[in-house]
Amino acid sequence: MVRVDKQVVHLDTAKRPKKEKAKKKKTNLVRNNLTKEDKASLKYASFEPLYKLWCEYFSGLAPADKTIGDRLLKADYHGALLMVTEADNQCQVGLHGIVTLETRYTIQMITRADKYITIPKQGSVFQFVLEGRVFSLFGDQMLQKPDLRGKKARVRQPLRIFLR
User: Fold this and answer.
1) What are the phi and psi torsion angles at 109 (to 5°)?
2) Which residues contact 146 (CB under 8 A, 6 or more apart)?
3) Which of 7, 34, 72, 88 could disulfide-link 38, Cβ–Cβ 3.0 to 4.6 Å?
């Protein structure tokens, strides 16, 4: 401490005010997850147009006269009306609803009773009916991020460099 013209000057390092971390805005529901209030406010009726769009999408993906094979795994199921036919948790068998969110390990859907449910893919079998055809999806085969399932794996070969 030094006294200069009746003023006290501290020569110690000044304490800097702590900066508060900026909070992320809620723009991405996948990153921030839905709160209980958000899930309670979701209504089945608001997802019915999404289901109609999904039916058009899947009809174009799977023509009625052809077998679709691998296309089932690569399809996008946001908006599909799925029913759980087998599950490790027997309480989940028979549940059905429109898919609102598909993650790597779960399928989240809203039921007709406006309940938001989460079904794990591991050990579950899902079914849906479209144009009189019944399709079965094995959750164990879908254990990937949905956007990665549809991508074709590229094989990269190293470049050969010839030196003389």
Assistant:
1) -140, 165
2) 76, 77, 78, 102, 103
3) 34
In sequence order, what are the beta bridge partners of 4? 7
Q: How many CA atoms within 13 Å lie on the side-chain side of 55?
A: 14
DSSP 110-135: E-TTS-EEEEESTT-EEEEEETTEEE
pLDDT at 26 over 90: no
User: Counting Cβ atoms within 10 Å, is residue 115 exposed (0-12), middle (13-18) or buried (19+)?
Assistant: middle
Q: pLDDT value at position 47?
A: 93
Q: Output the six-digit token pair for 133.
A: 């055809």
In this structure, what DSSP letter does residue 21 have? P
Helices (H), 4-47: 29-32, 36-41
Using the structure block, give the residue that is written with the tokens 């406006």: 114
The domain locations on the chain are: 35-143
**Chain centroid offset of residue 7 CA:** 63
pTM of the model: 0.68
Residue with tokens 């009916």: 129
Neighbouring CB atoms inside 10 A of 57's CB total 15
CATH code: domain 35-143 is 2.30.30.210
Task: Report the C-alpha gap between 7 and 1 in whole angstroms.
Answer: 10
Q: Please tell me the total number of residues recorded for the chain in this structure.
A: 164
